[in-house]
Design goal:
There is one protein chain. The longest helix is centred in the C-terminal third of the chain and has 12 residues. Strands 2-3-1-4 form a four-stranded antiparallel beta sheet, sandwiched between helices. The chain has one domain: Alpha-Beta Plaits. It starts with a strand and ends in a 7-residue tail after the last helix. The protein is of the alpha+beta class. The mean pLDDT is 97. The structure holds adenosine-3',5'-cyclic-monophosphate. The site of adenosine-3',5'-cyclic-monophosphate has 8 residues, from loops. Adenosine-3',5'-cyclic-monophosphate binds next to loops.
Length: 138
């Protein structure tokens, strides 16, 4: 059993895709173990994307992710980290296959609807960042 952090970004909330995204993960058999709706502070967005701090798109990325409410979630299941990433689809729009969330709903590299942790270490860090050290109650 693994846990992973997933965020529906402001574009996903604005486009009313929260239910669709949750439905896909639930249908697949993952278990929702944490959920928050919030407009992120710059502090939390910069911490979340700290690995991209030197990238040219960093400022724009932080502006985007703090522009409105997001849905921060923790999901649990067998191979949850890689399963969620497969279901999200690739970062590059031309590689995001039909049937994936990005492949079905976006053509943009930034407004790409969802974020999912890329490894067990980052999953733990991201769940702690968004939910607090003991923020998950089940
Ligand atoms: P995410 O999976 O959350 O990880 C980093 C985010 O940065 C990514 O999704 C995109 O929203 C954004 N991103 C990555 N590459 C680019 C890029 N070349 N231009 C703009 N935004 C990007």
């Amino acid at each position: 059993m693994e846990r992973t952090f997933v965020m529906v970004k402001p574009d996903g909330v604005e486009r009313r895709l929260v239910g669709e995204i949750i439905r896909r993960f639930e249908n697949r058999g993952l278990r929702l173990v944490g959920l928050r709706l919030l407009t992120p502070s710059r502090e939390i967005a910069e911490a979340h994307y700290a690995v991209h701090r030197e990238r040219p798109f960093f400022g724009e990325l932080v502006d985007f992710v703090t522009s409105g409410p997001v849905v921060a979630m923790a999901w649990e299941g067998n191979q949850a980290i890689s399963l969620v990433r497969t279901m999200m689809g690739a970062l590059k729009p031309e590689l995001a296959l039909p049937g994936t969330i990005r492949g079905d709903y976006t053509t943009d590299i930034q407004t790409n609807l969802v974020h999912g942790s890329d490894a067990p270490e980052t999953a733990g860090q991201e769940i702690a960042l968004w939910f607090g050290a003991d923020g998950l109650t089940n």
